[in-house]
Amino acid sequence: xxxxxxxxxxxxxxxxxxxxxxxxxxxxxxxxxxxxxxxxxxxxxxxxxxxxxxxxxxxxxxxxxxxxxxxxxxxxxxxxxxxxxxxxxxxxxxxxxxxxxxxxxxxxxxxxxxxxxxxxxxxxxxxxxxxxxxxxxxxxxxxxxxxxxxxxxxxxxxxxxxxxxxxxxxxxxxxxxxxxxxxxxxxxxxxxxxxxxxxxxxxxxxxxxxxxxxxxxxxxxxxxxxxxxxxxxxxxxxxxxxxxxxxxxxxxxxxxxxxxxxxxxxxxxxxxxxxxxxxxxxxxxxxxxxxxxxxxxxxxxxxxxxxxxxxxxxxxxxxxxxxxxxxxxxxxxxxxxxxxxxxxxx
Length: 346
Known about the structure:
Layout: E1 5-8, H1 13-24, H2 35-44, E2 48-55, E3 58-70, E4 74-79, E5 89-90, H3 93-110, E6 114-119, E7 129-131, E8 134-140, H4 145-151, H5 154-165, E9 169-173, H6 177-190, H7 197-206, E10 211-217, E11 223-232, E12 235-243, H8 252-266, E13 271-278, H9 282-289, E14 294-296, E15 298-303, H10 320-327, H11 331-342
Parallel strand pairs: 4-6, 12-13
Antiparallel strand pairs: 1-2, 2-3, 3-4, 3-5, 6-15, 7-15, 8-13, 8-14, 9-10, 10-11, 11-12
Helix pairs in contact: 2-7, 5-8
């Protein structure tokens, strides 16, 4: 360990080596990829600190961190903001400890309220606190579309068949225009500020070969639903999705995720990662209805200036009035104002 060096990712030439390490590591996720550093900077203006551990010039551990400072939601160093997974990835516990010590040192230098690791699984870290608010849903899928359809529980399968009978059409796109209209409608209806359209354009540019948009229209060409997904190793990750008011009438969202499953099979993916949800919410129930099992996510915190664990969840009672007011905004107004707030959500 005497030759272990912890340094920040700074040279463009190191990005390929960083991503190669992420690709071969069983612990790493799509959200550990180095491109997220520039995505977050270009889209929201936040600084990032991508820490890498090296021995004999070789990467043996990584810890991507983003700094989000907001008067409304607090000042935090997060691994990784705007992402559902993150945390430290290392060859052994000693390297892991060295990266975490460096992160704590950085958090103190920046005088943040807290340092947050968005782990898939908890790690043992003395002096850190844990909060279990979220779960994730992952399931292995078959190479055969008909087998995957049969694997969906009966009531949910009926919703997919309703979409099929409605003669909906599917398009795979690399444009965000249809997607943004469907997605911004959904988040407005939930009372949540939407991210800027620029962010989604940056995502598709940064992950050109590993991201796309699946859009559903009705037989008359009207927009029904759309989802932006990532592809990593053998996984498909539907990450941002939504539907227009028409979607409910024709089971558009149900049909969309089924079509995405078929599309993922064509791309050779065998794990459908339905993503993070808060326990006992509508999204949580929807994913369980597909036959997916909830797996708890362990988010861990090191408090620097904060006296208690943060709670920026929409389930926090102090945000309820804001949510109700936001739901009443005209869509165009929510699209204009939303990015000013959403960029600080992290």
